[in-house]
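# step 3/5: fold
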Amino acid sequence: MPTRRNATSTRAGILRPEEFAQHVSMKRTETATGLAPWVEYHWTLAWDLPAGTTYPSAVIPHPAANLSVEHGAGRAEADGEVVLVTGVTTRRFEVAIRGSGWVHGVKLRPGGLVALTGTDAKALTDRTVPAKDVLPVAVHDALDGLRPGTPAPEATEVACAALATLVPTGPDPAYDELLGLVEDMLADRTLLRVDEVAERHGLSKRALERLFARYVGVGPKWVLARYRMHDVVTALDGGYDGSLADLAADYGWFDQAHFGRDFTALVGVTPSDYRTRAQ
């Protein structure tokens, strides 16, 4: 399987990134070369807010699972567990950040968790579960040993060493095909419909949907829409001051009212309100 680096993900997702950076330090680190077909990158967060201060962070997630070691994040669904697996999240991901904390995360590629562990992607959609329910004990325990303040490169090295034990010994043609599809969907912003993707790659629409259901846990239509929403939010964060109708049309919405509903449902505010705050 060919080495792949950062070809199946945008770098978007964090809402109001400049505001986020005032409260939380974030570092991204590259994964080990041998893990690149399954892992996009690693990310490390650290924060230390004054007493009584809360920052409501919000993210539009990617069509991929995340493995995280969380100290001080205070997520109710963690139920005391430190090492967590979060499946593809179809809704806005929100965490109220307070006090001090540290998180090291592994952002897998779409389908990467399934290809490494054989877990059921659909069963993890919109769920966070203890990693011990998904990963071998040795992998979980290695990650559980990470402590707050561990430098990002060191945490990445520990995570890579643990995950390297999961690398398959043989090829997985279906997963490789999925990665090729996702790369194309991300790279070609003119691809707006599932039929177009299927035709370009010589697949039936049903075969395409089965592949995404098996590895990602959501359909290809959802993935296309999510990447285009990332593009829209990135444009607004970058200071886009043109017509919102033109912005919507550029990324596949031919009805501005439909665009407004989709944006508000996912981001939590209207496009015009988000632009005003971003500016």
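# step 4/5: annotate
The chain has a mean pLDDT of 93.
# step 5/5: archive (pending)
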